[in-house]
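User: I've been going back and forth on whether these two constructs are worth ordering. Before I decide, could you fold them both?

Assistant: Sure. I'll take them in the order you sent them. The first construct and its structure tokens:
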Amino acid sequence: MSARARWGGTGFEAVMLEAGTQVAGTSLNPVGTPAWQLGQPHAFRLFWDWTVGTLTWQIDFNRDNSFGTGETASFARVARIGTSFSYILLTANSRTSGVNSNAIDISNLRINGTNLGSFTADSLSPSIGQFFEPDPLGPRFRSIEILGDLVFRNTGGNGAFQSERPRMQIDFLGIEPVPEPASWVMLLTGFGAVGAALRRSRKAAAV
């Protein structure tokens, strides 16, 4: 499962994907005010509730310190109740072209309450990738809440895009199927609350 935010020049969008195919989404800020502002931080929240199998993707595009109507894309998969994940992949791509330059800043990134810092994709590093795993290894991510701030910036020229619009994407990877009923007791007593912490990082091309 994935969640993506993109800057399209004439509007912004937040969508969710399943195996690379868009399954839910909303076009943010195509009209009206207050509008999404380039160069300004917009809070985002991605929440996977493993107990009921729902994924919620929210962006505070009008910067009113809340996630209101029109700012939420929700996706429910009943078959996924109880699913957990091995790790999380955060990617960003600024899609710069020639003298034109765009940037994406991701700041105050927090996974299940753990602050994991800030990241930038710009003309110097147009594509970034960061993996996160539970610490210690062994327990998996169950219910997951990811919070942070997202800024799109035009840093040079007219900000023309190369092939694809600038974007940030979060992927939940390493799916574990729903356990057999006999396994529930062992899992629930053996695993406590999973605190998210940074285990390793490496560059990865944006998908």
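The second construct, handled the same way:
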Amino acid sequence: MHSKKNNFIISIVIIGIVVVLVFIAGTFYRIQDQHAITKQSLKSTLSSLEEISSIAYDYSRVGRFDDSLGVENWKNQNPKGYFLMTYRGEMKVGVHPDQAKITISDKKITIDIGKIKVLSHHINQDSLEIYDESANVFTKAKLKDYSKFQNEQRKQVEDEERVKGTYNKAAGKIREQISTALQVNDTIREEYHLEVIIGK
């Protein structure tokens, strides 16, 4: 009788220990899962980095404006074939981090975000001024339709900035910003080698 009682107590103790171990193991794995680095968790993090994934450039330019462009509601009083127009614009270049290709293997994370692109680019219409060579003065241009001029000038600015290395500099800065933001995560910083790839 005494032996049966002891066996029952031992069984209760063993069951209690097993329950505690299962609870501890479950808690451990839940904690591990919360800190697990997966493609999905990285995608979510990258989607929140839109603010640091682009760089804006303000600029002022002088453009050659040709009479043949046929702008509505404005006529050159002294047509000479072409004249000069000054303007200001803003170009934003960057990447879409949520479209990145992610690879995780052997404690290495590779994130390929693609090439730097022109995300937006506009010319401030209110800044347009025409240089009158005969009078040597600038006058405001009031144009309702200057799309051809704008398109040509935007393309010229984008090509010039690419040649000057602006896109390369932007790629380097954005890569650094995204890498720094990702390494705020202790697991990534301490357990993985991180490589962020951004094309020029």
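Notes on the second construct follow. The longest strand covers residues 117-132. The chain has five helices and seven strands.
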